[in-house]
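Exercise: predict the fold of this chain.
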Amino acid sequence: MIYRVKIADRVFTVEIANLQDRPIIALVDGEPIEVWPEDEPRPTPTPSAPPKKPSGAAAPARMVVASNGATNKVLAPIPGVIVSIAVQPDAEVVFGQELCVLEAMKMKNAVRATKAGRIGSIYVSIGQQVKHHDVLMDYTEA
């Protein structure tokens, strides 16, 4: 299925092969993005890493951005404003753990780890505006 999505004054072409896959792979203007719908069970957090929820009425959408190589770059899945950062440099993370929350069009979107690992550098701060595919942080796989 191919959709044309307009956000503000920009139009994106979104192609989704199968809405039943988990994660859903969406090609947004040719860039692959993994999307985890809210109806999926959340990964069980480890006792040392309790989940953090941003303030607000709605739970954040589950989003992850695929990456390759030993050092993973966590990219902004959409343009928006960083409203919280749930990790610190050198922190251990598990698959699905919230790394930060990005607000776009009054919706809070959790950016989650795609693999277990250790946070390297964090390149954003709370309140910072980011563009689509800006590097938010990096981490090394466990």
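Check your answer against the key: Confidence is low (pLDDT under 50) at residues 53-68.
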